[in-house]
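HOLO CASE FILE
Compound: PMV
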Amino acid sequence: MIASAPGKVIVFGEHSVVYGKHAVVSAIDLRCYVKAEKSGEVRITSSFGTTGYDFAGKHAYISHAIRRFSEVCEVGGVEVEVRSDIPPASGLGSSAAVTVATLGALNAEFNAGLGREEIFELARKVELDVQGIGSGTDPFVSTFGGSWVLPEKRRFHTDLEFEVIDSGETSVTAEMVRRVRELRDAYPDVILPVLDAMDAIAVRGAEALERNDIAEVSRLFRMNQSLLRAIGVSTPEIDRIVARVEEAGYSAKITGAGGGGCVLTTGMGEMRISLSAEGVRVEDFEDWGSADN
Ligand code: PMV
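Model generated. Tokens follow.
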């Protein structure tokens, strides 16, 4: 059986969400597809190659997903194959998507009857198994799909489309979060108001998205990016990308932890994405032949 799950973007509120402020996150129409087939052994195949259980290597999320699934449903062995539209390690939620799609495919192949809530709970455990920490946001969005205002988990819808530019630089989310915390501790009188301003942008941003008001979203992108720059998570390369996009009359901001990773833009991007994509689902094709990727 084949299942798929979406990647995600943080549209507003990265970093400030760590301090209890609002964030706006959305599932995107880039998906990860996983095929699971009962077998005598565990075999995992992706663009990284083929392995058995590989808990500490390239297939860590898939390996932990199989192990967590086998705690609720007997798995003798299984062949898992992955095809993903989501660029890895770029802040677009590829790890959560592969985890959730694996659980969805196992659920279908072994007729386990798990609902979305149970798939999310397992995916949340897998995130902690592999990363040690994690807010659970990525597995949540990938499982349920759609667009959400956090922390209250209010669902909303937007028809707006965006584009993504990968800066080509990599960063570690935990390290970026630590740097912001240090800055806040050293300059609370400066940084706390910045986090409050990000909060206000996220609240206005959700409303503007809901109204499909691209002009307002565009203004808020510019403000948010300036504030992200103020808390030290932009880079010279990201600043150059943002300047290029703005010169062409569009807006851009970091999406995710920054220090590299992806920039979300209202135009001029490399990859077009629409928001509010569907969460985990079983695909009705049984082999890759009819998949469009
Ligand atoms: O690395 P990403 O794209 O999942 O974004 C992390 C978002 C932060 O707000 C920086 C951290 C967090 O846990 O919310």
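CASE NOTES: The longest strand covers residues 23-38. The radius of gyration is 19 Å.
CLOSED: yes
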